[in-house]
Amino acid sequence: MCRWAAYRGNPLYLEELVSSPAHSLIEQSHCASRAKTATNGDGFGIAWYGDHPEPGRYRDILPAWSDCNLRSLSRQIRSPLFLAHVRAATHGATRRDNCHPFVHRNWSFMHNGQIAGFDRIRRRMEALLSDELFEARNGTTDSELLFLLALEMGMAGDPLGAMARAIATVEDLSRAHDVSPLVRFTAAFSDGASLYAVRYATDHRPPTLYAAPMGGTAGHCLVSEPLNDDVDAWEEIPDGSAVTVSASGLSRTAFQPQTALEAA
Question: Is the pLDDT score of 153 beyond 70?
């Protein structure tokens, strides 16, 4: 399973999450303590927002701990909203196009988890995409395809609702093609204004998600596992939850996949 960290608030240097803390994301890439696999060495990526609507991005297939450029960039880049990810591959080869975060226009997305039986429903998922979003698919992972499916289902106007519809669609496709539905999904995504995160699993065994204040008023960090040993500072986000970090701070609501028909 992968590890990730995301932040929204007053501008911070990326190193505050990526490299400086005692249990930074780089440290987690070779010594994760709350994951099934301690090593996350199948690539890494960062996406950050600055003066343009679309995020900047840097990804590579090297393990995060062995890329000197990552430390250098993290020390120099300062941003009010950024996402960082270290990968342990479940679907898709170790190549740059399969490294998170994925971006499309002003949106960025990263994921920890998996879709069981993905190879058996991938073509049906792809068939639901418009030509534009199908052509935007560069990699082969279940994560990227789920992101594009959520964009297809209205993420621009209803980020959390679109993600609920996308996950429900995946579960429905699994049932329709004799695959036992199982989605394990802890993800963060952003439009450059707000930061969103979801923790959900069909079998109620989702990857972990924690939140803590950071960067002054209304700033928060969302992570796969805490960045330090101050356990009182970190709130574990429960299964079946959606988190929004905006200018007014952090809010949490229940999350349940539902089709457009069910939502109506």
Answer: yes
Q: In the prediction, which pLDDT does 37 show?
A: 53
Burial 36-60 (b: 16+ CB within 10 A, else e): eeeebbbbbbbbbbbeeeebbbbbe
| pTM for this predicted structure | 0.93
| Alpha-carbon distance values, 32 to 2, 20, 41, 55 (Å) | 9, 16, 11, 27
Contacts of 2 (CB under 8 A, 6+ apart): 40, 85, 86, 87, 88, 100, 110, 111, 112, 224
Secondary structure class of 80 (helix, strand, coil): strand
Q: Say how far apart CA 55 and CA 34 lie, in whole Å.
A: 29
Instruction: Establish whether the linkage from the previous residue to 101 is cis, with ω within 30° of 0.
Output: yes
User: What b/e string do you get for 139-176 counting C-beta neighbours within 10 Å, with b at 16 or more?
Assistant: bebbbbbbbbbbbbbebeeebbbbbbbbbbbbbebbee
Q: DSSP string of 216-231?
A: STT-EEEESS-SSS-G
Q: Which residues are catalytic?
A: 2
**Other Cβ atoms closer than 10 A to 93:** 12
3-263 maps to which CATH number?
3.60.20.10
